[in-house]
Specification:
Elements: H1 2-10, E1 34-39, H2 45-55, E2 60-66, E3 69-78, E4 93-96, E5 111-115, H3 125-133, E6 142-149, E7 152-161, H4 165-172, E8 179-182, E9 216-218, H5 224-236, H6 247-259, E10 274-278, E11 284-288, H7 309-313, H8 327-333, H9 336-354, H10 358-376, H11 384-389, H12 404-416, E12 428-434, E13 446-453, E14 459-465, E15 473-476, E16 478-480, E17 490-497, E18 504-512, E19 517-520, E20 529-532, H13 533-536
Parallel strand pairs: 1-6
Antiparallel strand pairs: 1-2, 2-3, 3-4, 4-5, 5-7, 6-7, 8-9, 8-10, 10-11, 12-13, 13-17, 14-15, 14-18, 16-17, 18-19, 18-20
Helix pairs in contact: 1-10, 6-9, 9-12
């Protein structure tokens, strides 16, 4: 066992020791381990926090030292639903820095949420999922931190960026619009008569608006009518869904859940653990949450009993596509184009992260960084042997938590050869924007974009916007006549009028052929094509 532990330590990057320097540590720095020290008034602090968690929603007032910076009168409580357990010290924590002083924050963050990684002997599920998801949609930052309570080492925790005001500002440019979390900690009393039962956050339509209070937590000061309208359109007028929902982000969320077998989510039994925020353009944006049960740690899809390892590895990429009780999946995937986009996203996630083995390398790096503080934790839920084996072996006779590589190596191969994912996409090439001619005096006020695509594309669509806070508009590109292209390749163009002389255009292109779709650039979420009209007029 010691040899294995030393081997993990040897992988630890030298940057991991940077916390000994005098520089201020960024809260979500991934190369170092943070430190939070809580001073609470109760000697038996875990029992006191249990009592508060069970009998009310209050917080214990104490002092927090976050990476050496002191904050007085913060609020502390145990949080979590299934991840919370009475009688243990290693529970998930919430530390509200602005509990008494509304202006108090650490590097702009007013609330710290620490995950105990229950049902994850590897301690990397949540971090790995968020890192991968962040390539394709807004996702919380993560880092590791050591927690001390009243000078007692409580263990190594995952510090999760709260999906709250600062997160919403950073990703959506506002924080005061309708905002919901799927799932409730406490059912409203008395229960509302006539509501559908056990639907959780499935987004089924309810005529009685009060029924939504039994399945969603309102995180803003208004919005129930907006949520009801989303469900009405989703279930009854799905052709209008893009008016009220960012469909592409939703398809990314569903694809990420499926690839990484995240069944404690909308895609699993209970339709929980996600947020919905209505942006300034009137569209709800989905955000993942509570991912410690991803990579097959939670095994129930809502259809029958828990899945065994083989069925987790072979989870249907079109799970719930025909399930009317999961309208966010079934209603969207009824649309042929949305279905192709979803499957293309799924294929891209697998190709970029799992088929290459990049995920396993990253998981080993994360484990190497936390091996020593994990081993030092007297409250840890798993042994150091389980921790070391957890990437490659199933842990627990009853819980049967799959090893991440044990699950994903075969799952990746299964997806790679699945009939729904083997259609060859059209490769988009020679993307260009036409500028003003060398000897032309008249300024141009139109972005003319030209691109080629092979494998007999049916059509090319260009998605474009003139500001980061705008949704993308779309336009079908015009097929050009060209006689000197290889068989199956076509040229397409689009003309987009600029509204101002200093307009800046963000855009990406999607090619659709008979079997699937493709995108250019592939990483359009973070780095779309960008062109300035002023550059075209030089």
């Amino acid at each position: 066992m010691k040899n294995l532990l030393f081997a993990l330590i040897a992988l630890l990057p030298l940057a991991g020791f940077a916390q000994n320097t005098k520089t201020v540590r960024p809260l979500f720095d991934k190369k170092t381990i943070g430190e939070i020290r809580l001073t609470l008034p109760a000697k038996n602090w875990a029992d006191a926090l249990d009592s508060m968690r069970l009998y009310g929603e209050g917080m214990m007032v104490g002092t927090a030292l976050v990476d050496g910076q002191k904050y007085e009168n913060v609020g502390v409580r145990f949080r979590g639903n299934k991840s919370y357990q009475v009688g243990i010290k290693r529970n998930p924590f919430q530390i509200k820095l602005n509990y008494s002083n509304t202006e108090q924050n650490h590097q702009g963050y007013t609330s710290l949420k620490l995950s105990a990684a229950k049902a994850d002997p590897s301690m990397v599920r949540e971090v790995l999922f968020h890192e991968i998801a962040a390539k394709y949609m807004p996702s919380s930052q993560t880092a590791y931190t050591k927690l001390f309570v009243n000078e007692e080492y409580a263990g190594i925790f995952i510090n999760l960026e709260s999906v709250d005001g600062q997160f919403l500002d950073n990703h959506f440019g506002s924080r005061n619009n309708p905002f919901f979390k799927a799932g409730v900690d406490y059912k409203p009393e008395p229960a509302v008569n006539g509501c559908k039962q056990n639907i959780f956050g499935s987004l089924e339509y309810e005529e009685n608006i009060d029924c939504y209070r039994e399945n969603f937590t309102l995180e803003s000061d208004r919005g129930w009518a907006d949520l009801q309208e989303l469900t009405r359109i989703l279930n009854n007028e799905p052709a209008k869904i893009e008016r009220v929902l960012d469909v592409d982000r939703t398809l990314w969320m569903l694809a990420l859940n499926n690839v990484m077998v995240n069944l404690s989510s909308y895609s699993g039994q209970y339709s929980v653990n996600y947020y919905l925020y209505k942006d300034n353009n009137g569209r709800f944006q989905p955000v993942h949450w509570d991912l410690n049960l991803s990579f097959g740690s939670f095994k129930n899809t809502g259809n029958g009993s828990d899945l065994d390892l083989r069925n987790l590895q072979r989870l249907d990429p079109l799970l719930h596509a025909d399930n009317p009780y999961k309208p966010l999946i079934s209603q969207l995937l009824k649309d042929n184009l949305y279905r192709k986009i979803y499957l293309a996203h799924l294929r891209q996630i697998n190709d970029e992260n799992f088929a290459t083995g990049a995920y396993e390398k990253r998981a080993k790096e994360l484990q190497a960084m936390i091996a020593v503080p994990f081993n030092d934790d007297k409250n840890k839920l798993y042994s150091i042997d389980d921790f070391q084996k957890s990437l490659n072996e199933t842990i627990g006779r009853k819980s049967k938590i799959p090893g991440i590589a044990e699950l994903m190596s075969k799952r990746s191969r299964f997806l790679k050869t699945h009939p729904e994912l083997t259609a060859l996409p059209s490769a988009i090439s020679d993307v260009s924007v036409q500028g003003r001619g060398k000897f032309e005096n008249q300024r141009i006020n139109t972005f003319r974009i030209v691109a080629n695509a092979d494998r007999f594309p049916k059509k090319l669509l260009i998605y474009y916007r003139f500001a980061d806070n705008q949704p993308y508009a779309s336009m079908v590109m015009t097929e050009e006549t060209s006689g000197d292209l290889p068989s199956g390749m076509k040229t397409f163009s689009a003309n987009i009028e600029a509204k101002t002389d200093d307009a800046v255009l963000d855009y990406y292109i999607m090619a659709e052929n008979a079997g699937t779709v493709s995108f250019s650039p592939m990483n359009y979420f973070s780095k779309p094509y960008k062109i300035k009209l002023s550059d075209l007029n030089k």
